[in-house]
Amino acid sequence: MARLVYVSEHPLVQHKLALLRDRDTDPKTFRLLVREITQLLFYEATRDLQLAPLTVETPLGQCAGRQIVERIGLMPILRAGLGMAEAILDMIPNAQVWHLGLYRDHQTLQPVTYYVKLPPKPNIQLALVVDPMLATGGSLIATVDILKRWGLDRIKFLGIIAAPEGVEAIHGAHPDVALHLAAVDSHLNEHKYIVPGLGDAGDRQFGTVH
Ligand code: PRP
Ligand code: URA
After folding, report:
1. Which residues contact 183 (CB under 8 A, 6 or more apart)?
2. pTM confidence score
3. Which of 69, 110, 122, 183 could share a disulfide with 52, CB 3.0–4.6 Å?
4. Can you give the pLDDT at residue 111?
C-alpha cells in the first residue's frame, strides 16, 4: 500500500515550526504556535471531506452553497494533543471530542492507556487523532487499535513532528491511516526522543518538568 504520509511544505507551517522548535520559546508562545500550525495542517488534511448541497438566503436572494456532512470526532491523545484539539474545534465547532489518555512509560517506553470512555458504538464517520509527536509510534498504534476495535475505519492522524521510526511502525501496523505532519525528523535518540525534534511537547505546552 502506498504510504499515506503528507508533510506540509507550506511556508507558514515551516516558519512557525522553526519557532516552535526553538528551546527559548516560552509555553505561551509554544501553545499559540501549536494552535496555528494545527489549523494549517487541518486545512490541508481535510481536502477530501464530503460536502452536500444546501441553499442559503443572502440579503439579495437564494444561493447554492455546500456544507460538510461527515460527522467528525477529534481524538486528542492526552496530554499533548489537547491544544491541537482545541485549535481544530474552533474551526469545526460541532465536532465531537473524545479524549484518549495514553502516556509513554519512561522506563519501558511502551504506551500505557489510562483513560478511554467511548460510547458502545461509533457515532462519528471520521476520527482525527491529534498528538504533536510521533516518536516510536507506540502511542498512535495503541490509539488506532482502540478506535478500530470500537468499529471505526476512517482514521487520520494530525501530528507536528514524526521520527522515521514512528512512520515506519505505523505503516507496518495501520497502513490505511494517513499521517499529516509538519516534519519528519532525523532519528530517535537512546531515550526515544525525536532528534532534533522540540523536546517534550507536553512539558513545553504546560510548563511542567519530568
Ligand atoms: C508523548 C507524545 C506522544 C508520545 C509519542 O506523550 O505526546 O503521545 O509521547 O511517543 P511514542 O510515539 O514513542 O509513543 P507522553 O508520553 O510524553 O505523555 P504526555 O503528553 O502526557 O506528556
Ligand atoms: N514525546 C515527546 O514529547 N517528544 C519526543 O521527542 C518524543 C516523545
Report:
1. 7, 17, 160, 161, 162
2. 0.96
3. 69
4. 95
